[in-house]
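User: Batch of two.

Assistant: Item 1 of 2:
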Amino acid sequence: MLRIANLRGVFTGEGFAKMQGRRPCAEDCGFREGPLDLICCPTSGRIVDLVPTGRASTFPLTDTLDGSGLIATSAWIDSHTHALFAGHRSTEFFARWAGKTYREISDSGGGIHNTIRDTAAANATLAQDLEHRLRQMLAAGTAVVEVKTGYGATASDERRMLQIIADVRHRPGLPEVVSTYLGLHTVPRDVSRSTHVASMTAVVEEIAKNQLASFVDAFPEQGFSTLEESRDFLEAGRRHGLGIKVHADEITDMGASLAGIRLGAASIDHLEHISDAAVTALRDSPTVATLLPATSLFLGIGFADARRLIHAGARVALASDFNPGSAPASDLQLTMLLAASQLMMTAAEIFCAITYNAAGALGFDATHGVLATGKAANIALWKTSSPLSVASNIEGLEQIIIQRTRPIAVVVRGQLSVGEISSDCERPPQ
């Protein structure tokens, strides 16, 4: 067993689960004042106890981390990334800032088409690059990362990308990885739309059978995929046991949010132009509304209306949307800061959005996003100068958000994965 000893305090997040991630407040953060010890089982990857420091444990302890002066939270969960790619699109950002639109760049052969070409040409280095990015994300406090495909021109290319994700995810010292088959991202210029959609849909059964993905995803938008094409593709995924995620209403109101809710999507993501009907539907739906404010920053488009969604009773998550063309920032620190300054979200709402609700966006909030007995031992340890007590605990989270603090250490599935901290246990080989 691993003991994280003498913690200054622990944010359990247990109130988020009680409220189903809706309208989170400071009390829901579940702060417990220390000194406390968290005890984890590296074999099961679960938390087995949270006890006052000094109390004898009924579990055999083999390793100890010194948590003196530190606070513990659930490690972050990034439920929407495009972290498997090659190349960069820096020139496009300057083109947009000079007046070109995202669609104009795509129509001229740029945008996603550029990344598809670069990714095809960099086959030998893709796995190494993905591993490097995942290590960077882990160092910033993220213990679970969703990785999408979407930069393959053909179904064969997309399957190859899923295999790369599968190979990398088992390497030691990395975050947990959830893979998503983004089959309908953009249509290559040398094939018809109907042919492309049919070929991408035809491999869904094989992908599900070989457990290469947990979700299917589509990008219904003008100039990309139609809502009808996307719905058919997503329904094919559902028939074969895969979860559903949707890039919804980012640039225009395509009705994609409401369609995703009706399909039972785990999450609908972006939502800058979500309709009133979809917002109302989210109130009684388990579907998570995932907001990606870094994309709005880099594209120069309006931010999603988080206050409207939260007040309506929707479950709101935050994610980085890390990708080369619209959100080239792999850490959630920027996302959190933008959520506070541009989406007007409170520290408690942000904390819930990158832990419990982000877990919901990936379909495993029954096991992740809360620090409690039996839950996943994905733990971030932080040092703050804020005076923490049960009455004023929220200041610690506010400091982490505003100062873009990085964790002292991160534990993934009960094992120290990254960080400089006094211990008598070894980190996994890097």
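Item 2 of 2:
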Amino acid sequence: MTLPTSMRAMLLERPGTPLRLAQLPVPEPAEGQILLAVQACGVCRTDLHLVDGELPDPVLPMVPGHEIVGTVAALGHGVQALQGLHIGQRVGVPWLGWTCGNCRYCRRGQENLCERACFTGYQLPGGYAEYTLADARYCFALPEEPAPEHLAPLLCAGLIGYRALRLAGEAQRVGLYGFGAAAHIIAQVARAQGREVFALTRPGDTASQDFARSLGAVWAGGSDETPPELLDAALIFAPAGPLVPTALRHVDKGCCVVCAGIHMSDIPSFPYAWLWGERQLRSVANLTRRDGAEFFELAARTPLRTEVHCFALEQANEALEQLRRGAFQGAAVLCM
């Protein structure tokens, strides 16, 4: 297979500025790496946080994007023997791109908290490009169906949603705060598991509420409304700190609120009585490879409808702006 020598990529040179379409050399995979020909890359709210300068210490310039679906174009030394990957195989690349394997978190099965972890599209080049590199150990084998744009949102929105739902334990009545890419996927997983889903959106966003009901939510309303029943768990996907005390008031005693975003605005003070009663407040940090293996096994058994809106690579800035405005239901995806 003859590879081109250059590729198009969208480059973030400085936070607060638009991405720039650049012509870059096609990289060569080092030992343990694979080169991917990118088919699709999801546009995630974390990419917005990166562009807006809300994430600390990014590596710049950077090609964003961490919901990558592509085919293996080249293998670094040792990859095939160790990973069983082959040229032309479809794989996915998630947010977690590398861990040290030696720190106390890695040793006790919490690689998502690794002290030296590197993340795709943040410290490692991402998928807003025609080609990208990835550590073979942190890639997931993907099926040939459905189309790549429908698989891309599973690589972060799906995985983070799954981890948040898993932290909710056996909760039967689950509230989803913010009904975007992650919530629209995990609502379907929760319904398939026999749980009841309650969707809370921006006040007045009837389109998102109708969308939630179309995916099986038993109730949908604004975040300024009170669900008809106390919840067993609340999963917060919107990066809005004021939703935390709101959600605490909506969950029953002994139940939990899970904050699923990598960034959130400040949480306002609230009365201790809203937390009392052995309610729990938790956060989700990144993901583990175990999460990925479990989620994709579950996805193979549970047909998931991903609502996607495709943009060309050079339309990445437009996709980010539409995501910021909440201009669509579901997920935005760059399609190569």
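The chain has a mean pLDDT of 96.
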